[in-house]
Amino acid sequence: MEKKNGKNIARKRNFRVSIAWALLLTVTLLSGWSVPALAESDKATSIYNKVKFLDWLVHSSPAAKRIEVSGDEEAKQQLMRAKDMWEQAVEHSEKEEYELAEVHIDTGLKLMTKVSRKFKDQEKERHARIELYKQVKGHVEMFVTAFDRIAEEEGKDHIHTMLDRDELDSLMSSAQSNFDDGDLVMANHLMRQAADMVDSALSDARHEDVLLHELSFESLQEEYQYEIDRNDSYVKLIDLMQEKTVPSQASASYVARLIEQNAELRKEADALAEKGDYEKSIKVLEKGTDKLSRALRVSGAQF
Amino acid sequence: MTILRNLITSTGAVVIVFMLALLLVNKESHSADPNQFNRLLAPPSKRNPPPTLDGIHDADGPGAAMLQTPKSAFDILPKSKSGNYVDWVKALDEKKIAPRYDRNDVDAQPIVMDLNIVREVKGSMPNVVYPHKQHTEWLDCSNCHPAIFIPQKGANNISMASILLGEACGVCHGKVAFPVSECRRCHSQPKKKSTGAKAAAK
């Protein structure tokens, strides 16, 4: 009997060992087969995407169309060479000669990048330069106003010396003349210099400063409104946290309970505010926001 | 042999189920709204999808598949606990990244402003500190002023509600910079004794 039991145990042990070996073998085989296969398929996908991109670039892109309708023979030849590179890349990738395909894609892309630089969308570029000029000019004007305000508020004469007004005026008027004459590149260059000047002056004037925005209210009604906004934003943030972080069932129900308690307190606060008792309503609302604050922590926000 | 065959079959089944699940997840990311706010609040399983699946790039665009994936691009950068899981400030400090200040000028240097703005808030939450320094090391003044913030004290009405809706700080935070769930990164100045709230009518 004991012998029989011993045999059974040994058989079971052998079976377990076989299973373990089989598992190990499977994992080894699977990893051995799948890694190179995966690497190869990654390469094929990468080449496929690049070929597709070059195809679009040489045949359908706006740059290719602009080159085709231009009278620039040299550019057209470059485009033809790029198309040839694409064709060869396709052939090599079909033969799974990925390295050769890569070389042809690279040459094709470089050719297209170089030649398309000569054929930019002039109107689009002009429009973008005009917009940039207006934007930077607005920035300079606004920051000069800010600089003047700071200098006045601080009441320090040395702040005024941080900005050379004559040089700034000269830069801005030169920029404007160039803009009016249609030299948008120079206009933007000069206006950018003016912007850098003002930015540097502001940066010097504010160096290592700390601006404090104190929290103060004109009335209790205003403070009540602030509390309402704070309460609302906590509710929104909890919603967001719940949606994005997938909470556990236990924490979700706890949070739901806290939200309910806040809703009750909010009702109470609103009723008090309607009666004009803002002092009490603020206190009640603060209690509600505290509940939400706890819910927020449970939902994963750290503060 | 039977055991081995069964094992391979079951492994194959698991792989197929996994691939199907992956397809479903990808399909979901693909249809995401590119302008959605707080998209960086995604759970870890959905973090940093490749450009063709991130809902930001045009998946059918000819270049989308050629772009480097965040997974490989972010690999060498300092880690953070949320958002796109990169500590960008640290990455900049450690010179792991060197963003070009001017697209056309490699040598252009940023004009860094070292100005902190402290905003008092009510309740148990610490006050907010906005450091210009860390922002201007990468961004130009015109990225935020005046379109997002008017550079004048008291001219901007900022609330958590507006940030959550993608306004003010929420234009970047939650979309490309750390999300609003990282309260302490902005609410970083502990309060002294009072809450700081002063109601004139009290």
How many domains in all of chain A?
A: 3
Number of strands of chain A: 2
Query: What's the CATH H-level homologous superfamily of the domain at 69-189 in chain B?
Result: Cytochrome C3
Gap between N and C termini of chain A, in Å?
Answer: 68 Å
- Percent helix of chain B: 25-40%
Percent of residues of chain B in beta strands? Answer: 5-15%
**Which structural class do the helices and strands of chain A define?**
mainly alpha
Mean pLDDT metric of chain A: 86
CATH architecture of the domain at 69-189 in chain B: Alpha-Beta Complex
Oligomer state equals heterodimer
List the helices and strands and how they pair.
The complex is a heterodimer of chains A (303) and B (202).
Chain A: H1 2-60, H2 62-69, H3 73-94, H4 98-117, H5 122-154, H6 157-160, H7 165-181, H8 184-205, E1 209-213, E2 216-217, H9 220-245, H10 249-274, H11 278-298
Chain B: H1 2-30, H2 70-73, H3 88-93, E1 115-119, E2 127-131, H4 132-136, H5 141-144, H6 160-164, H7 183-186, E3 187-189, E4 198-199
Antiparallel strand pairs in B: 1-2, 2-3
In short:
The complex is a heterodimer of chains A (303) and B (202). Chain A is 85% helix and 2% strand.
Characterise this structure.
The complex is a heterodimer of chains A (303) and B (202). Chain A has 11 helices and 2 strands. Chain A has 303 residues and is an all-alpha fold. Chain A has 3 domains: 116 residues, no CATH class; 84 residues; 79 residues. In chain A, α1 runs antiparallel to α3, α9 packs parallel to α11 and α10 runs antiparallel to α11. Chain A is flat. Chain A starts with a helix and ends in a 5-residue tail after the last helix. Chain B is of the alpha+beta class and 202 residues long. Chain B has a domain of 121 residues: Alpha-Beta Complex (Cytochrome C3), CATH 3.90.10.10. Helices cover 28% and strands 7% of the residues of chain B. Chain B has a 3-stranded antiparallel β-sheet with strand order 1-2-3. Chains A and B meet through α1, α5, α8, β1 and β2 of A and α1, β1, α6 and β4 of B. β1 of chain A pairs parallel with β1 of chain B.
